[in-house]
Design a protein that fits this description.
The protein has 111 residues and is an alpha+beta fold. It has four helices and four strands.
Length: 111
């Protein structure tokens, strides 16, 4: 089993999602794993990764302090390999360097 945990915040609006991500990253040592937009960006899911304590603290803090109340939030400690595969599949959309030429190579590799 891996030592990674995943944290999820589903929130209404891109601005609120970026605010929640900022809160999560500043709260503890988590990193953006991927994100999804649904309904034309009206519903955004942010997925972060890190150790269990950091992810839990980040999700709880963002749920309390974000500019909008999340529709849903959760933490998965030691996710099953199929969950990790889905997150990697989602993140793979950002791996095409020609589409995101302004991102540095380190960011592309981490996402």
């Amino acid at each position: 089993m891996s030592n990674i945990s995943l944290g999820f915040i589903e929130i209404s609006g891109v601005v609120a999602a970026v605010d929640a991500l900022d809160i999560m990253c500043k709260t503890s040592g988590v990193e953006l794993a991927t994100w999804e937009r649904k309904l034309g960006g009206r519903l955004v899911t942010i997925i972060v990764k890190g150790d269990v304590a950091s992810v839990t603290e980040a999700v709880e803090t963002a749920a309390q302090k974000a500019i909008k109340k999340p529709a849903a939030s959760g933490v998965i400690a030691n996710p099953h390999e199929e969950i990790l595969r889905l997150v990697r599949l989602s993140a793979s959309r950002f791996m095409d360097k020609s589409l995101v030429s302004t991102l540095d190579a380190r960011t592309i590799q981490e996402v």
